[in-house]
Specification:
By secondary structure, the protein is of the alpha+beta class. Helix content is 31%, strand content 29%. It has four helices and nine strands, in the order ααββββββαββαβ. A hairpin with a 2-residue loop joins strand 3 and strand 4.
Length: 154
Amino acid sequence: MNKKTISLILLIAFVATLALTAANVFLDDVNTQENQTGTLTIDNRTVSYENVGKCLEVIDGNTIQVYGVGRVQLIQVDTPDSEPGFSDAKKFVEEKCLGKTVYLDIDDAQPTDKFGRTLAIVYTDSDDINRELLDSNLAEVSYFEPSEFKKGEV
């Protein structure tokens, strides 16, 4: 074999390894966790969730894309749609969620909004994202009925 052939084989092997590694980062364990229910302990309280997936994208401060679920709207949370505040809220959610496993407590009374987004409280292994956005003054309470959650309950 000549040097060009060997170089081409090594390049193909490198690209394939890189692609599999990148896919594993986003898809690791999702298939085993998807559509599972359970509980987490966050800030000394037990919370329930109905679905699990990896956060693939942060659309804005209160909307994320979750593998196996689709777009998720953080319920009872209204973040700014423009500056000032838009970038800060989005960056906060990116730091907390992007590339990580998120746990969704989906609103049983209204599981989706008129745009087809899943309405949920979003948790990571250690954080209540909805509550932290409010506590950090990056969002205001937004409430729509019907909802399983009481106003300001998140």
